[in-house]
User: What shape does this take?
Amino acid sequence: MKAHIPLRCHALVATLLVLLSAGGCSKSGEEVVPAAKTPDQAASGLDQTFATAPPVVRENVTAASEALRRRDYEKAVVSLHSVQQAPQITLQQGMAIHNSSVLLEAELIKAIERGDPRAKAAYELLKRSRRN
Assistant: This one.
């Protein structure tokens, strides 16, 4: 007996395929922001991506980058959140923020598993900031 798959399911799959295949396209001059594997890479990616941002935004990016490099978890969470709230963030800047946040979360989880209370506090702050 053949299973009946609703038409909406086919439409959803087709839409997802189109979105996924379009995600690989970029305008000329736009660079893909690679996912960072270390806090230093995340910090460097932020610095490079925001090199031409307004001074106020660059200050927050510098604070986030330095906090990532020093493993100052709470400051990294707060600074990344501030950068994320800046107006007129480009796609590449948004991806750099996202990549850094994902890496920071992974670093926090590792530190929590090692028993770092500062990491636990920063992780709770990160969860609260995502709700806002």
